Amino acid sequence: DVKVTQSSRYLVKRTGEKVFLECVQDMDHENMFWYRQDPGLGLRLIYFSYDVKMKEKGDIPEGYSVSREKKERFSLILESASTNQTSMYLCASSLGGQAYNEQFFGPGTRLTVL
Amino acid sequence: GQQLNQSPQSMFIQEGEDVSMNCTSSSIFNTWLWYKQDPGEGPVLLIALYKAGELTSNGRLTAQFGITRKDSFLNISASIPSDVGIYFCAGRAGAGAQKLVFGQGTRLTINP
After folding, report:
1. Do B40 and A107 count as a contact with CB atoms less than 8 A apart?
2. What are the pLDDT tens digits along chain B (112 aa)?
3. A84: helix, coil or strand?
4. Distance (Å, rounded) from C-alpha B89 to C-alpha A102?
5. What is the DSSP-derived secondary structure letter of residue A19?
6. Which of A52, A71, B28, B105 is most enclosed, with most CB atoms within 10 A?
7. How far apart are the first and last CA of chain A?
8. Which stretch of DSSP H or E encloses residue B12?
9. Between chains, do B88 and A90 touch, taking CB under 8 Å as contact?
10. Gap from A17 CA to chain B (nearest CA, Å)
């Protein structure tokens, strides 16, 4: 079974702090994604990566950056956390081609910024 | 940008009832997907649809890719307690499209 793990299930940070969210997948997937999930808004794509050291902006990249130094690991960075970044963050991975559509998600990190 | 309108936003039903939900778009998609998110977990793919008019089943779940390519439907028959969760539709504009667009989700609650 594909496993996508995220470093924390719950995180509480203060405004202005630098925040790192880590995601690791164990199935050698090329593609990795970071989404945020907010009630009534569904899942919105922040960034994605289709290869090591490659990254592409999603729909809401402002205030975030990412890093993919190894194929299995994709990090989301909040340079200076703000209260409007309080949300559920979901990481996902997939193979290429038609299998791109089958994105395997981690359990999520619920981030609260005070 | 592209948007998906998913309805209803929430449903409260009795165990054993059938469930219907749908998703519409202002633009054409070449792939429609349905995911389910259990409480405290990430979404899991239920059904993928690749052709207009396609009807696909996965156990008690049936999904259809609308003829216009601007909508999709998911039906659940004879609901059971483990069907509780949030159901998301997602669309992809084409093979070259780099991202999925997700609907807002339908939260399903079942009274035993």
Report:
1. yes
2. 567 999 999 999 999 999 999 999 988 998 999 999 998 899 999 999 999 999 999 999 999 999 999 999 999 999 999 999 999 999 988 656 668 899 999 999 998 7
3. helix
4. 13
5. E
6. B105
7. 37
8. strand B10-14
9. no
10. 26
